[in-house]
Structure formats: structure tokens, C-alpha cells
Design goal:
It contains no helices and eleven strands. By secondary structure, the protein is mainly β. A hairpin with a 6-residue loop joins β4 and β5. The N and C termini lie far apart (about 40 Å).
Length: about 120
């Protein structure tokens, strides 16, 4: 059973960088041919795919977020991370990590991040 758990600060100030980590257990993030995604849901809105990192370390980003999004991984800890720079209050959302690219079979529970001064 694969489990994912998001971690990171729940409050970020505008213009700062939001950093979240997803810790994966029950499976390796380097196993072919899995992809590991970050997805968010702003209040009152639908899910938004932000980007993904593949089993081989390749990264993929939503065109609308690419300019200020970075996804990386630490294979020794079986973790992958999200960095979103220059955040605004519009980046307030529940952030999820999940296994998959366009469909997902395992999800983290989600973590609320609020952007506010």
C-alpha cells in the first residue's frame, strides 16, 4: 500500500516561496514508470495540476505555473518537493501530492497553505 504525506508551512507571506515536501512510503519514487504530481485546490474551485516528476527525474509543469514552479526529489529519503516562488493570496489552496500524471491512484491527505501577510 503506497502512502503519501505532504508537509510544510501552513502560512506563507506574499512574495515569498512556498515549499512543500511529499514523503512516500510503500513504494519507491524511482520505480518505472511512475509519475509523482503536485495538485492544488483553491477555495471554491476545482483541482489544478501543477506539475510532476517522473521515475527518472524528468520534470513537467503546467504552462500557467511553469515560470515560478520547481519540483525536485530526494531519492535517499523517497521524497519529492514543490517550490512555488513569488506567491500571492491567489496561491492559497489545499495542496496535494499524488501518484500519477493525468490520473491518480494514490493521494496524500492534502495540506492547507494560506498566503497572507
Amino acid at each position: 500500500q503506497v502512502q503519501l504525506q505532504e508537509s510544510g508551512p501552513g502560512l506563507v507571506k506574499p512574495s515569498q516561496t512556498l515549499s512543500l515536501t511529499c514523503t512516500v512510503s510503500g513504494g519507491s519514487i524511482t520505480t518505472s514508470y511512475y509519475y509523482w504530481s503536485w495538485i492544488r485546490q483553491p477555495p471554491g474551485k476545482g483541482l489544478e495540476w501543477m506539475g510532476a516528476i517522473a521515475y527518472d527525474g524528468s520534470t513537467y509543469y503546467s504552462p500557467s505555473l511553469k515560470s515560478h514552479t520547481s519540483i525536485s526529489r530526494d531519492t535517499s529519503k523517497n521524497q519529492f518537493s514543490l517550490q512555488l516562488s513569488s506567491v500571492t493570496p491567489e496561491d492559497t489552496a489545499v495542496y496535494y501530492c499524488a501518484r500519477g500524471f493525468s490520473s491518480y491512484d494514490y493521494w496524500g491527505q492534502g495540506t492547507q497553505v494560506t498566503v497572507s501577510s
